[in-house]
Write a structure and sequence with these properties.
The complex is a heterodimer.
Chain A (H helix, E strand, L loop, with lengths): L1 E10 L3 E11 L4 E5 L6 H8 L7 E6 L2 E2 L5 H8 L2 E4 L11 H11 L4 H14 L15 H13 L5 E5 L7 H16 L3 E5 L3 H7 L2 E6 L2 E6 L4
Helix pairs in contact in A: 3-4, 3-5, 4-5, 5-6
Chain B lengths: L2 H16 L1 H37 L1 E6 L5 H12 L4 E7 L1 H11 L4 H6 L8 E6 L5 H13 L4 E6 H44 L1 H9 L4 H45 L10 H27 L1
Antiparallel strand pairs in B: 1-3, 1-4, 2-3
Helix pairs in contact in B: 1-9, 2-7, 2-9, 2-10, 7-9, 7-10, 9-10
Classes of the chains: A alpha/beta, B alpha+beta.
Chain lengths: 223, 296
């Protein structure tokens, strides 16, 4: 599903965020991307979401070399990827229903279909009763569940999450991880960047370890 | 809802949020378009007036008091034989004096005090119209000037043409001024749109990250510019209409008399369309440029 070849990202003249990184995430896999701060986890996710372009090397997702995409194709590609951010990135002026439904709206889906699917995912994350609330009226955990709902509403093949539990307490973190496990169980590829070792251990999936922008190791889950 | 519906919905919400800055923007657009509308209004009326004057223009051939009847008849014959001449009318000294008294009754005291008739007899020549009428009139005036019995030749078209030249220059200058003002207005619209984009920056970033098409990301900014421009032009049109009504009332029938048979007229559908579409275009262009710059 995801393949990087000799991926290098340099900021400024010699600030290597990623250096000659070759990693693969299989279709339908749930993998963790981990490492200390500055290891390159967020940079890799930004490259996967085409927020930035690599200095060298290539990123292939679903068989498509992302470097070949035009700006309009990048937008179309992003609509096939669900992304969950550490800071939730919800639109404060819209209700949580509108935040989630917005993705379907820009895809031009019929209003009735938008409504049905949005309620479905909000119910799935347990927030259907708060659909008229605004993001700032919700707790951190609830906001992140809305963000997960938004990432899933379009039934993406790939879900990327950058420190999705970074602002949450341990119980809420487990709750969010359970959602990711459920998503993955339905066949969606999931890549979660986190430095929370306890969480990784609890979920028990393959780990891609980065350090100074390079691959420092991979670990299969203990059986 | 379509992208257009979404763009209008967001643009209207943004205008409501912008409040005072949106009003300032509409005001600057309106000032630019009042200038343009004013020039258009003056232009169509002055042009109409000049056209009528040009149509009625004559060559006046003033005869010497001592000119004989034979000289006058020879001159008349020569004029009637020329193809560019539509009509020739003889105005005697007495008739010229009478006409002056009729046209300027307020000068009765002056005319009454005259001991002799100062007006020369004249032949008034009306020319046929056409593209080369002015050249033909110039030639005719030259040919007549040296003939026996001719005192002076006055050619209305000459000063009318000069006036037309002045009006054309004024019109070009007006369009340049309106263009500069419109450019300023476009910058103001651009600034307001940029402020709106800044206010919505988080939302726009999220839209970009979830893969919203560019039409959804940029559409509201373009529509916002379009609405500001269109509203500004509409306000300007209303202001021009009020000015037209006030000026028309103030000038009253005097101006109608000056203009000849014509009346003051307001802008036609074409000029109104130029103003509204101009405002919409300037606003939309400013919105497009602002949104492109912001999302680059």
């Amino acid at each position: 599903m995801i393949e990087t070849q000799s991926l290098t990202k340099i900021y400024g003249r010699e600030d290597y965020a990623l250096r000659d990184l070759t990693v693969t995430v299989e279709k339908g896999e749930f993998a963790f991307l981990t490492g200390p701060s500055g290891a390159g986890k967020s940079t890799l996710l930004r490259l996967l979401l085409m927020q930035e372009r690599p200095t060298e090397g290539s990123v292939t997702v679903g068989g498509r070399d992302l470097a070949t995409l035009s700006p309009a194709e990048i937008q179309a590609y992003r609509r096939t990827v669900g992304f969950v951010f550490q800071d939730f990135k919800l639109i404060p002026s819209k209700t949580i229903f509108e935040n989630v439904a917005f993705v379907l709206r820009v895809l031009g889906q019929p209003v009735e279909q938008q409504r049905r699917r949005t309620y479905q995912v909000l119910k799935w994350v347990g927030l259907q009763h708060r659909h008229n609330a605004y993001p700032l009226e919700l707790s951190g955990g609830e906001q992140q569940r809305v963000a997960v709902a938004r990432a899933l509403v379009n039934e993406p093949h790939l879900v990327l999450a950058d420190e999705p539990t970074g602002n949450l307490d341990p119980d809420l973190s487990l709750e969010i991880m359970n959602l990711f496990r459920d998503i993955n169980a339905s066949g969606t590829t999931v890549l979660v960047a986190t430095h929370d070792r306890e969480l990784i251990k609890w979920v028990g999936r393959r780990v891609i370890q980065l350090e100074h922008g390079q691959l420092s190791g991979t670990a299969e889950p203990a059986s | 809802m379509t992208v257009i519906g979404y763009a209008f919905e967001e643009a209207l919400a943004s205008l409501r949020r912008s409040g005072r800055s949106a009003l300032v923007s509409i005001g600057t657009i309106a000032i630019a378009f009042v200038t343009l509308g004013g020039f258009l209004l003056v232009s169509v009326n002055v042009q109409g007036m000049l056209d009528r004057w040009l149509e009625a223009a004559e060559i006046s051939i003033y005869l010497q008091d001592a000119a004989t009847a034979e000289e006058r008849q020879a001159l008349e014959q020569m004029l009637r034989a020329r193809p560019e001449v539509a009509a020739v009318e003889y105005v005697s000294k007495e008739r010229a004096f009478q006409r002056f008294r009729t046209d300027f009754p307020e000068l009765t005291d002056v005319t009454a005090s005259l001991t002799e008739n100062p007006f020369p007899p004249a032949l008034e020549v009306r020319l046929r119209g056409g593209a080369d009428a002015e050249v033909a009139a110039e030639t005719l005036a030259k040919d007549v000037s040296g003939r026996a019995g001719v005192g002076d030749v006055r050619f209305d078209r000459r000063w009318l043409s000069r006036l037309l030249g002045v009006v054309t220059s004024a019109r070009v200058a007006g369009l340049v001024v309106a263009g500069i003002l419109m450019l300023g207005a476009a910058f103001t619209v651009g600034a307001v749109v940029r402020l709106s984009i800044y206010a919505r920056r988080d939302e726009l970033e999220i839209m970009a990250l979830v893969g919203a098409p560019f039409s959804y990301i940029r559409g509201p900014s373009i529509v916002e510019g379009l609405l500001l421009g269109g509203l500004g032009a509409a306000v300007a049109l209303a202001a021009v209409a009020i000015l037209y009504s006030l000026v028309g009332r103030w000038l009253g029938s005097d101006f109608a008399g000056l203009a000849g048979a014509g009346q003051l007229r307001f802008l036609g559908y074409g000029e109104i369309a130029i103003m509204i579409l101009g405002g919409i275009s300037v606003g939309a262009a400013a919105g497009t440029l602002a949104s492109r710059a912001a999302h680059r």
